[in-house]
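Same chain as my last thread, 501 residues:
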Amino acid sequence: MEASSEKRPVKITDTILRDAHQSLMATRMRTEDMVPVLEKLDEVGYFSLEMWGGATFDVCMRYLNEDPWERLRTIRKKIKKTNLQMLLRGQNLVGYRHYADDVVIKFVEKAAENGIDVFRIFDAVNDIRNMELSIKIAKKAGKIVEGTISYTVSPVHTLEQYISLGKQLKDLNCDIICIKDMAGFISPIDAYNLVKGLKKEVGLPVHLHTHCSSGMAPMSYYAACEAGVDILDCALSPFSWGTSQPPTETIVGGLKGTPYDTGLDLKLLSEIAEHFKKVREKYKNLLDPIAERIDTNILVHQIPGGMISNLISQLKEQNALDKYQAVLEETAVVRKELGYPPLVTPTSQIVGTQAVFNVLTGERYKIISKEVKEYIRGYYGKSPAPVDENVKKKAIGDEKPITCRPGDMIKPELDKARAELGDKAKSDEDVLSYTLFPQVALKFFETRTEDGTDKKLVAAIAAAVLEMKARTKSKLSHRFKRPSKGYSAWAMAGRMAMMRH
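reply #2:
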């Protein structure tokens, strides 16, 4: 790796309004905690502010009694110069399953209409077919699209494969290629080679996203700068490190005087950070100690930090924390048998929950989750490598996996949802919220008010009740037993641990 003397200022995306608090405290930051500094954030000169998508949509309604669409509109009113960015899981949108094409089209259109400028679109198994439609609609709306590579390490994930994926994303008219390292184990040399290869072979701007989980992120960022990276994801210091991103101030300060100098004002960043220090103090009881730590064992077992806390949560509820090491080892085996999927939502939950089943029952694949069966059937897309034949036989017998685009198997959903809602829906956005999270949305619609009631008081009470119910339900429903018909592995996985990517 050779440093260049040519000036190549790197741009910064700040994740403080989305992934930073999603990674460290299960996405619980409220809109009211963001509003006071939005105008200052707009003055920084970021490439973008990531503030929507991922788990924020679900959490806004489920735990905060907030309308996610209203959050977007509120932030858009205050942020006038900086791009607003969201994370979109392709055909999964912001949910945990694939949705019909009519839902994808309407959701992307409404997200663009309400203020999103940059769509970071990825698929958990890097199946380009699951990304095509959302990319097409975002481009049609005149927005910036980051075609995203879900980065992982395995015998079947090679530099050549990633560059090929980058070329396919370019062919779909993506504006930027994003490398999404959700586990935080991209090494400096791999970051350098991948960025260099994409810049040379694909020719689009490259945006690198990682986490500090393994401790390598700042080194990998500098290596990426030397390779010509265009944009880096950072998080303001109060919500950085651990399973979050490197501190914005540290990266900006570290690049000062180099060819990659961002030109951002450290004094202004420090002023904004003071606000978020107070916000962090407000939520200190929600901060996850595991998420705050750097875990160098990730370099060995290659399991993302968010998934680790998921596994620990499941084992604690089963009074089986002594099985932790066995579950870690089993997770690696299950991932291999399922064709090495990247461990990001929803595949991280699919793999992790099956590993827990295998260890706690004492017999591998005695219980097979519905999601594993659907994954093997091809309903999540094509696995990176073939699924182990013995596992496939146990899960779906002689049934043949689908070879078509998974979205082609889903009937239109919006008209049915609209009919079910009736006058409870006040807008197309309400219909979308209900389609994605039916029960959660209905509860939210019941608690929102349009009269003179104190909405903040209602929101606070409702959020507390929802949180209490969720915890109570979790304690009662996670006793280990054979699942009943229609059981979903998400109940076993634990909702809070899902709120990470």
